[in-house]
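hey so i finally got around to running the thing on that chain from the lab meeting. sorry it took forever, my laptop kept dying and i had to restart like 3 times. anyway pasting the input first so we r on the same page abt which one it is
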Amino acid sequence: MSVLVLNADHTPLSVCTTERAFLLMYLKKAEIISATANKALRSVSQSYPFPSVIKIKQYIHVPYKGVVLTRQNIFKRDNHACQYCGSNKELTLDHLIPKSKGGKSSWTNLVTACKSCNSHKGDYSPEEVGLKLKNKPIRPSYVMFLRASSKYLNDDWIPFLEHKASA
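ok and heres what got predicted. didnt touch it at all, straight out
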């Protein structure tokens, strides 16, 4: 299971394993904020709460955490689905404004597209060939990406991820 790790100011830092979270708490580098109900970590002689959210005790200065523009991160942002037809087969990247017409490789100009829609669009804008986007492409924040890319999202995490996503 995964544990949400918060900085001393309660901003999300990362997600780690239960074992790593327990080690940080045992070494007194972190404290438990939320535990999973009806679950415990046991040793031969003791029982400990099963962490869901922990907070690092000493503030860690983290330089701006942006999401790196990569093919896989575009696919993640777009939920591995073509932004024109919704297919999840034979996915590629599509430049909304084609490179030949000055389009850049950026979060707001790249979308996930299936090969069929990408071929149909060709060297035109989506509007020119009658294609409509399902979602407007945006640059995801680190917290949005953390929330969207985590395979395990505990209800205990939501207040920390929701609060920071709107900030």
